[in-house]
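Hey team,

Filing this mostly as a record. A colleague (T.K.) asked me to run one chain through the structure pipeline before their review meeting, and I want the input and output archived in the tracker in case anyone asks later how it was produced. No errors, nothing strange. Just documentation.

Input sequence:
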Amino acid sequence: MITLNTEKNNQVASLQQKIKYLHRETAASTLEVSSQSHTASSEIYTLTETVLHNENLHRDYIKSSNLSEPSSFSSNQKNNDIIN
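Output structure:
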């Protein structure tokens, strides 16, 4: 009976050590992920950059060099059409 109690106490102590180790590992991983997400969220993108959100989803920004001359849009005609 004493042998069983000693063995169980050793198992409990071993499990407690494993739990402490896993807790430290989890805390370190959480800090690492937290700092990575903070870095990612603080990045600033310019209009000329393409931002990849996922492998399948992305957003393209319009470059100012891709815009036509304002006069080619017939902005006056469009404004007149809206008013009328």
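Quick notes for T.K.: The first strand starts at residue 50 and ends at 52. The CA atoms of residues 29 and 61 lie 34 Å apart.
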